[in-house]
Amino acid sequence: MKYAVMKIISLESILVDLPTIRAHKLARQTVMQQTLVVLRLRTDAGLEGLGEATTIGGLSYGEESPEIIKSALDTYISPIVIGMDPRNVNAVMAEIERHVVGNRLAKSGLETALHDVSGKALGVPVHQLLGGRQTAAMECIWGLASGDTAKDIEEAERVLSQKLHRGFKIKVGSKAVENDIEHVSKIAKAIAGRGTLRIDANQAWDELTATRAIAALEAVGVSLIEQPLPKANHEGMVRLASRFDVAIMADEAVATPQDAFMFGKHHGADVVALKIAKAGGLLPTKSVAAISQAGGLALYGGTMLEGTIGTIASLHAFASLPQNFPFGTELFGPLLLKDDIVQQRPNYSNFAIAVPDRPGLGVDIDEEKLAHYRRDKTRSLKPVAALKQGSA
Ligand code: MUC
Ligand code: MG
């Protein structure tokens, strides 16, 4: 073995505020910038592991804000991992699990950094640590969420002609359901025969509204309905999944292997959106995927709108799974950001995102950009929590 012993000597977490190329409107929040929590795990061998923990809209989407993630990492997680061998990912994460309840986004960032440094130490890409990739590239869709029908159609036309994306996810739920149906119908008509459509309601509807909306959306050719009901309404999801032919996907409702078990057992969805942030890392994502598949659910490669580090980490995990991804992935986060803090952004071409084959994640920090965008140095943008929810 090249490194007989290796110890973690520090774990740094950095808040990085990056502007988006346009407002991204979800049912309950409008994203104008993303705050990435970038992790730098350093070892006594001189190797560094990178990780990322990113959420959406401060505390309005999930229970961990970027500031909470940073505090969990700095105050509670870092002292535990110092001195441990980062290459034993299972041992480090088991120790964290003994002391830290929940906080899966923070754990996901750490677990990513452990995989990155392990891959670098062994000279192999992260997907190889996960058993090897089963594909060299994965279909990548685009999120249409400008809030304006004409702008969304223009954007769809642009990315179709650039051969970047041919699958589209339209964000709905912030307006009256009739307006959403009209909006989606117009886009469906504009791209008919050239692109596929999915919608994400981000828990915005009650069951009656969802039933009405899904019937109309199915009729205009939408192929996937994501998280139509509040995440706690499991029984409602079971009823919708059995009522409609169009595929129903669980996102917020399925984070852990236990959630996947419940949804598989009761058929609360046809598809599960995997996210390393929701599951708490790459290995837990593989567990969620295995249990989902055992329960007859198909897989989908979800995103928390991460930058390049989190996106590529997700891709290594998704590519190592059986390729039961009928709706592909939505790993478009880096394309929604105006800039990033890495030397090379992901390779998007021919409607897909390519899996890197370099040791570790295959991502390098751009030190100048990191220095420019880190919040503790520049404060060039307001923290996202300071933005008024629902306004542009
Ligand atoms: C979500 O709920 O899927 C991911 C892509 C996007 O447009 O929003 C996010 C969150
Ligand atoms: Mg979603």
Task: Provide structural commentary.
This protein has helices at residues 66-81, 89-99, 104-122, 126-129, 149-161, 177-191, 207-219, 234-243, 257-266, 276-279, 282-294, 308-319, 333-336, 367-373, 375-378, and strands at 8-25, 30-43, 48-54, 137-139, 142-144, 167-171, 196-200, 224-226, 247-250, 271-274, 298-301, 348-349, 352-354. Helices cover 40% and strands 19% of the residues. The longest helix is centred in the N-terminal third of the chain and has 19 residues, at 104-122. The protein is globular and about 60 Å long. It has two domains: 8-126 and 363-386, Enolase-like, domain 1; 129-354, Enolase-like C-terminal domain (TIM Barrel, Alpha-Beta Barrel), CATH 3.20.20.120. A seven-stranded parallel sheet has the order 5-6-7-8-9-10-11. A three-stranded antiparallel sheet has the order 1-2-3. The chain has a three-stranded antiparallel sheet with strand order 4-13-12, with no helix packed on it. The termini are far apart. A hairpin with a 4-residue loop joins strand 1 and strand 2. It is built from 15 helices and 13 strands. Helix 6 packs parallel to helix 7. The protein is α/β, with parallel strands linked by helices. Magnesium ion binds at residues 200, 202, 226-227, 251, 273. [(2S)-5-oxo-2,5-dihydrofuran-2-yl]acetic acid binds next to loops.
